[in-house]
Design a protein that fits this description.
The structure holds 2 protein chains of 2 kinds. Chain A is of the alpha/beta class. Chain A has one domain (about 5-250): P-loop containing nucleotide triphosphate hydrolases (Rossmann fold, 3-Layer(aba) Sandwich), CATH 3.40.50.300. Chain A contains 12 helices and 10 strands. A 6-stranded mixed sheet of chain A has the order 6-7-8-3-9-10, with helices on both faces. Chain B has 2 domains: about 5-240, Rossmann fold; about 245-289, no CATH class. Helix content of chain B is about 40%, strand content about 20%. Chain B is built from 12 helices and 10 strands. Chain B has helices at about 50-55, 80-85, 105-115, 120-130, 150-160, 180-195, 205-210, 230, 235-240, 245-260, 270-280, 280-289; strands spanning about 5-20, 20-35, 40-45, 65-70, 75, 90, 165-170, 195-200, 215-220, 220-225. Chain B is globular. The chains are: A alpha/beta, B alpha/beta. The interface between A and B is large, with 50 and 47 residues.
Chain lengths: ~290, ~290
C-alpha cells in the first residue's frame, strides 16, 4: 500500500469564529491521497470544497484536526511554509485573473525566478511548462498577456504553477471555460503528469464528464463534511447519492438513468460514451 | 425573410493593437445578421474570436473596419450608444463581476436608476424581471450569499429590467455547476418562447442543441453555420475545429457503427432514449397498432 502524501484528519474550520456570524465550513473532515493518486472533490456550492483545499498549502491553518502534506505538518506554526507552497501547487478558479506580467514568458518565469534558480534553468522550466499545457514557447513567449483569449490565459496560469515543479497539484475547476479540445488536451496532460511523473493531483470540479474521465477516487462533500467516497463508477452508479447531494451526472449517465426509468436493465455506472453505447447495444435487436 | 435584422454585422474586422507596428487580428471580414426572436448560438475554440464578436453586438468593442448596426444605429455613434445598450444587453462569464449592489433588488434597479425611470415603474419592472428569472423571493437578500446560478439570474434580471430586444450571453454558464447551468438554460428557453432574441456564446455542446441556428467561428471567421442538427452532423470537421458533438450524438454514432438502422442523427439525450425504444420493442409496437 502506498503511503499517503496528503493526510487530512478531523479537520474543522469555522469562519468568523466567536462572532454572531460564525459559520462552520468544515466539520471533522478526513481524507487521504496516496502518492500519484488522482482525486476529485465534488459537492454543491458552499459544501466546503474550497475551504478544504486551501488548507493543503497552508493558506488556512487547521483550527482543529491535522493536515500533513509530504511530511510537513500544516498545523505546526513553525512549519516551513515556503517549502510547503513549493510542494503543493494550488491553482485557483479563474487563475487567468492573476496574470500580472506584460509578456507571457515573464509571467510563467516569475515563480522559478523568485526561487533563485539560475537563468538557464528558469528558461528550461518555462519551456517545459509551456509545452506541457500546449503553448508553443517560440510563438507565445513574447506575446502580451492582455491580447489572449480566456482559455489561453488559463493555460499560462497553469504553466506558471507547473514551472515550480510541485509534488501535489491542487486545482479548482481546472477546465471551466475551456473549449472541448482544450479541455481534452488539458485533461490528458494532467493525466500524463499524474501517471508518468507520479504527480499527485487533487481537483475540485463541477464538470462530471471531467470527474468521470480523470479521477481514480471521488470525495463527495456536503454541509462541510465528507458525505461519501468511492470510484467514479460507484458514485455515478448510485442514484440516491446523486440525488441527495445534488450532483449532476455525465450526459451518458443521464441517458442510462432515463433508460432505466423505462424499465431497461442497464448499468448507469457506465459513464463514458463508448461504455454507454455498449450498454445500449445489449438492449437493441440488431 | 421579411423581418429586418435587429443586429446587422457587416463585414467587420478587428485587431488588438500591441504597439505601433504590431497588431493581432481577431476578426476578419465577419458578416452576421441576427433576426428578431431568433435563438443563435456562437461556438468556436478558445481564441477563435467568438467572445470578441459578441462584444461587438452592443458596442463594448467597435470594429476596426466594417460596421455593426443595432436597429440601424451604428455602434460607433457614441451619442446613441445608450440606445444600443438598452436594446442589446449582455451577461458575462463571471457572476461576481457583474453584481454592483449589496441587495438583490438594488442591483436589478441599477440600470434603471441610471436612465431615470420613475419609482413606480421601476418597482414594476423589478418585480417583473425578478419573476421571470424566478428570484422574487430573494429580492431583499444580499447577493454574495447566492449560488453562481442565482447570481447569473440576478444579472439577467438587471438586463431584462432595461426592456431589451436581445440578450447576449457570453459564456454565462461556464463557471456554473450543472444545476446552475440548468437554471440559466430554463430562463433562456422561457425568454425565447416569449419572443426575446437570444445570442449565446458557449462551450457546452449540449447547450447548443436548443438554439435555432449555430454559428461556428475559427480564426476570426465564420466557417460553418446551420441548425444544430446540421452543424453536429459534421463531427470530423468540428473536431478539426477543436470542438465536439454532444455525448448523445457520440453515443448514437457508436451504436450506429454496430447497428446500421440506429439513427446517427441524434443530438439530445431524450432522442437516444426514443431511438432505443424504437429498436428494442418492435413486437410490442406491432401488436399495439
Amino acid at each position: 500500500m502506498n503511503r499517503s502524501i496528503v493526510e487530512v484528519s478531523d479537520l474543522s474550520h469555522t469562519y468568523m469564529q466567536g462572532t454572531p456570524l460564525a459559520h462552520r465550513a468544515l466539520n471533522r473532515v478526513s481524507m487521504q491521497a496516496a502518492k500519484g493518486e488522482c482525486i476529485a472533490i465534488i459537492g454543491h456550492t458552499g459544501s466546503g470544497k474550497s475551504t478544504l483545499i486551501q488548507h493543503l498549502n497552508g493558506l488556512f491553518r487547521p483550527q482543529a484536526g491535522k493536515v500533513i502534506v509530504n511530511g510537513l505538518d500544516v498545523s505546526d506554526p513553525k512549519v516551513d511554509i515556503k517549502l510547503l507552497r513549493r510542494q503543493v501547487g494550488l491553482v485557483f478558479q479563474n487563475p487567468e485573473d492573476q496574470l500580472f506580467e506584460k509578456l507571457v514568458g515573464d509571467d510563467i518565469a516569475y515563480g522559478p525566478f523568485k526561487m533563485g534558480l539560475p537563468l538557464a534553468e528558469v528558461k528550461e522550466r518555462v519551456e517545459w511548462a509551456m509545452e506541457l499545457v500546449g503553448l508553443s514557447f517560440e510563438e507565445m513567449k513574447d506575446r502580451p498577456t492582455f491580447a489572449l483569449s480566456g482559455g489561453q490565459k488559463r493555460k499560462i496560469a497553469l504553466a506558471g504553477m507547473l514551472a515550480l515543479r510541485p509534488k501535489v497539484l491542487v486545482l479548482d475547476e481546472p477546465t471551466a471555460g475551456l473549449d472541448p479540445r482544450s479541455r481534452q488536451e488539458l485533461l490528458q496532460r494532467i493525466r500524463r503528469l499524474n501517471q508518468e511523473e507520479r504527480l499527485t493531483v487533487i481537483f475540485v470540479s463541477h464538470n462530471m464528464e471531467e470527474v468521470a474521465q480523470l479521477a481514480e477516487r471521488v470525495y463527495v462533500m456536503a454541509l462541510g463534511q465528507i458525505a461519501c467516497e468511492g470510484t467514479p463508477r460507484q458514485i455515478f452508479g448510485n442514484q440516491e447519492i446523486l440525488r441527495e447531494h445534488h450532483i449532476g451526472t455525465p450526459e451518458a449517465v443521464d441517458i442510462l438513468y432515463k433508460l432505466r426509468e423505462q424499465g431497461y436493465g442497464v448499468d448507469p455506472g457506465a459513464f463514458l460514451p463508448e461504455e454507454a453505447a455498449a450498454e445500449i447495444l445489449k438492449l437493441i435487436n440488431r | 425573410m421579411t423581418n429586418n435584422p435587429i443586429i446587422r454585422v457587416e463585414d467587420i474586422s478587428f485587431s488588438y493593437k500591441v504597439n505601433q507596428d504590431q497588431q493581432i487580428p481577431v476578426l476578419k471580414n465577419v458578416s452576421l445578421d441576427v433576426y428578431p426572436g431568433e435563438y443563435l448560438a456562437i461556438i468556436g475554440h478558445n481564441g477563435s474570436g467568438k467572445s470578441t464578436l459578441s462584444k461587438h453586438l452592443n458596442g463594448i468593442l467597435t470594429p476596426s473596419e466594417g460596421g455593426v448596426y443595432v436597429n440601424g444605429i451604428d455602434t460607433r455613434d457614441r451619442m446613441r450608444l445608450h440606445e444600443v445598450r438598452s436594446k442589446v444587453g449582455m451577461v458575462f462569464q463571471h457572476p461576481d463581476n457583474q453584481i454592483v449592489a449589496t441587495i438583490v433588488e438594488d442591483d436589478v434597479a441599477f440600470g434603471l436608476e441610471n436612465i431615470g425611470v420613475a419609482p413606480q415603474e421601476m418597482k414594476e419592472r423589478i418585480d417583473a424581471s425578478l419573476a421571470v428569472v424566478g428570484m422574487s423571493e430573494f429580492r431583499h437578500r444580499p447577493p454574495h450569499h447566492l449560488s453562481g446560478g442565482q447570481k447569473q439570474r440576478i444579472a439577467i434580471a438587471g438586463i431584462l429590467a432595461m426592456r431589451p430586444q436581445c440578450v447576449v450571453l457570453d459564456e454565462a454558464t461556464s463557471m456554473l455547476d450543472s444545476y446552475g447551468r440548468q437554471e440559466i438554460l430554463t430562463v433562456i428557453r422561457k425568454l425565447h418562447e416569449e419572443g426575446m432574441t437570444i445570442v449565446t456564446v458557449t462551450h457546452h455542446m449540449s447547450e447548443v442543441t436548443q438554439a435555432d441556428r449555430v454559428v461556428v467561428m475559427e480564426a476570426g471567421q465564420i466557417v460553418l453555420q446551420g441548425t444544430p442538427r446540421e452543424v453536429f452532423s459534421h463531427q470530423a470537421r468540428l473536431q478539426e475545429l477543436h470542438l465536439d458533438v454532444p455525448d448523445a450524438s457520440r453515443i448514437a454514432a457508436y451504436v450506429h457503427a454496430q447497428c446500421a438502422s440506429f439513427s446517427v442523427d441524434l443530438i439530445e439525450n431524450d432522442e437516444v432514449v426514443e431511438e432505443v425504444n424504437r429498436h428494442s420493442i418492435p413486437q410490442a409496437e406491432a401488436s399495439g397498432t
